[in-house]
Amino acid sequence: xCTSIVSNRKKTIVGWNLDLKDMEHRVxxxxxxxxxxxxxxxxxxxxxxxxNTRGDFVGxxxxxxxxxxxxxxxxxxxxxILLDIDLLLQKKTLAEVKAAAESGPVFSVPGLTFMSALSDxxxxxxxxxxxxxxxxxxxxxxxxxxxxxxxxxxxxxxxWMGWDRYxxxxxxxxxxxxxxxxxxxxxxxxxxxxxxxxxxVSMVFDVTENTVYWCExxxxxxxxxxxx
Length: 228
Known about the structure:
The protein has 228 residues and is α+β, with helices and mostly antiparallel strands.
């Protein structure tokens, strides 16, 4: 469960709720950006989400229900997690990730459909849904991705798909003013935050001001920030 939002008005503002259960995580400030890392027994700490100094943002919601078309098939293609990491670590640009996703199949890990919610400094948005396709939006006024496939919408139901979160965020963004900023973005993230699969990090990237803000475990009064 996660929520990704992008707003392009006077500023480009990106918001991300990481909803995570029973996994270790940490927020790391590095020379390359502010990353949310999760711990993998094999790979160690992996930077999977967050903002880099180039102005890109990477979110990776899980798609519910799972779609078996995202399973690796042994054919040539791209691993969605590696595409996301390459963008986050500035090994690829958003345009290069888009080209890779368009040139062949994109797969996730067996039994779990991870999606990509990606954006760049110009506010362009790329959604990758392994096994289903991609959606590219050139500097949309706003964008929302939760935990269901935009290709299926509510055609398939799952308790964690986030249909309610999607419409809540979409409604708040539709009504937002041209001065939409960091506090407004946190207000949306707070409204759609979760407790069953808890929101462990809420992050806002003010791309225009090159500043990242975040709080952990829904402690909305304890916001940290880092300026690139």
